[in-house]
Amino acid sequence: MLLVVIVNYKTPGLTADCLKSLQSEIDDTSVGPIHVVVADNKSPDDSLQHLRKTIDEQGFGHWCSLLPLPSNGGFAYGNNAPIRTALASAQPPEFVLLLNPDTVVRPGAIRELVRYMREHSDVGIAGSRLEDPDSTPASPAQVSAFRFHTAVNEFSSALRLGPISKLLSRHEVGLIPGDAVAACDWVAGASMIIRKSVFDKIGLLDEGYFMYFEEVDFCLRAARAGFACRYVPASRVVHLVGQASGVTDKSKANKRRPAYWFQSRRRYFVKNFGRGYAILADLAFVVGFVPWRIRRIIQRKPDTDPAHMLFDSVKHSALFQNAGGEGVGGERKTT
C-alpha cells in the first residue's frame, strides 16, 4: 500500500485541487492500494468544513480521510501524525509519499515514482520533477533535486559572482533539472516518496523543525544510514511555489523571511555538523552577501533578496542564538 500525506494549513482550496488531481492515480491498479490522509494543522479558518465537503461531494471517502490535529506544529509534525499511525498498524504502507497542498499531480506521476522504487531496492527516497502549471516535458523544470548545504555553497550562493560560481559549481546546492533519473543528496518535500524501511531505520521527520530544512535533515540521516536518493523526472507534479507557505512565493520576492526559516537553517547545521561549523556557515554567507549587495547597488541590478536578509542572518546566527534552533511553539524530539 502507498500512504499519501498532505498537510493543510489554511489552504483548503489548494488542497481540494490537489485531491482532485489524485483521482486518476487512485484508479491506476498498477500502483496498488492508495490511501490519502489530509492532516490539518489546526487551521483557524473553515478548512475542515471545506475539505469535508469536498471529500463527500467528490466521493473521495473510500480513499481519503481527514485528520484534524490539536495544534499547528509545522510540516514535520503534520506529516508524522498519520505516518506514525500507519507504521504501527497491522498493514503498514510499503511507501509513504509526502505531497504539498500547493501541488497538482500530473497523470502517471505516482505510478512512475512507485515503479522506480520497486525496481531499485537500494533507493530509499525519490522525488518528482516539479514544474510550473504551463510546463511541458521539454520546458525547464523547477529545481527540485539538490546537494547538501555546506559553508562553501552558502558563500557561493550569497556572493553570486560568475567566476567564483563557476569555480565552485560542483558545490552548488541546486542541481540543473534533466530528463533522466539522477542521483542527488536530497529532493524537495513537495513530492517525496519514502520507503518504509527508511522510517524503520532512522525514525520519523524531526519535529524540532517548524518548516524548511526538515526534508534536508531527513535525507541526510537516510544517506548516513546507507539509503540512496534519486530525482525521477518521469514523475511530473505541478508546484505552485510558495502558495502554501507564502515564504517563497515568486510574486513576493522581497518578502521578509520568518524567524522559523533561520531557526530551521541553524538547527540543520548545528545538529548535523556542530555549532562551530554552523557559525562558519553563517560567516561564509555574510562574507559573500555583503560584497554582492554593494555590487548590486553599483551595477544597478534589481533587488530580489528578502527584506532585511543581512540583519536577520546575523541576528539568527548560531553565534548569538540557541545552538539547537528551536522550533516554533517549542522544540520537539525526533521519534
Can you tell me about this structure?
There is one protein chain. This protein is of the alpha/beta class. The chain is 39% helix and 18% strand. It has two domains: 2-142 and 177-251, Spore Coat Polysaccharide Biosynthesis Protein SpsA, Chain A (Alpha-Beta Complex), CATH 3.90.550; 252-315. It starts with a strand and ends in a 20-residue tail after the last helix. The relative contact order is 0.15. Mean pLDDT is 92; it is low at 325-335.
Summarize the structure.
It contains 12 helices and 11 strands.
Level-1 CATH class name of the largest domain: Alpha Beta
Radius of gyration: 20 Å
* Relative strand content: 15-25%
- Sketch the major β-sheet: 9 strands, mixed
Give unreliable regions as ranges.
325-335
Cα distance spanning the termini = 22 Å
- Secondary structure: helix percent: 25-40%
According to DSSP, the number of beta strands is: 11
H and E string: EHHEHEHEEHEEHHEEEHHEHHH
Mean pLDDT: 92
Q: Could you say which overall geometry the principal axes of the C-alpha atoms support? A: globular
How many helices? 12
CATH topology of the largest domain: Spore Coat Polysaccharide Biosynthesis Protein SpsA, Chain A
What class, by secondary structure content? alpha/beta
CATH architecture label name of the largest domain: Alpha-Beta Complex
Total discrete domains = 2
